[in-house]
Amino acid sequence: CFPRSSLISVAFAFSSDKRALTTSFGSICLGSLVVAVLKATVVMLRGLRDQANKSGHDAAAMIICCTEWLIRIIEGWMK
User: Fold this and answer.
1) 68 vs 11: CA distance, rounded Å
2) With contact defined as beta carbons under 8 Å apart, do 55 and 15 qualify?
3) Contact 48, 65 (CB under 8 A)
4) Distance between CA atoms of 23 and 7, rounded to whole angstroms?
5) DSSP characters for the chain?
6) C-beta of residue 45 within 8 angstroms of C-beta of residue 68
7) What is the pLDDT tens value at each position of the chain, 79 positions in all?
């Protein structure tokens, strides 16, 4: 037979798993979607920055670089 404290711990684990997969599942999915969108945006900005650098548009490259930096900060907060 198992000690009572371990049974209570198992019950708490199952209840938290149930909540994560039912009530909070939408929040988890939304957070993952936001992080994915931010990562895709960083990739697109990196391509735009490379094109601006190759074309000699230094001011545009600097603005894109700053935007990329801000998005990376937001991405860090999301994690």
Assistant:
1) 45
2) no
3) no
4) 24
5) ---HHHHHHHHHHHHHHHHHHTTTHHHHHHHHHHHHHHHHHHHHHHHHHHHHHHHT-HHHHHHHHHHHHHHHHHHHHH-
6) yes
7) 445 555 556 666 667 777 777 777 777 788 888 888 998 999 999 999 999 999 999 999 999 999 999 998 988 887 6
Tell the residue number behind the tokens 């599942």, with chain if given: 25
Supply 20's token pair.
């994560």
pLDDT at 13: 66
**Residue 6 Cα to chain centre, angstroms:** 34
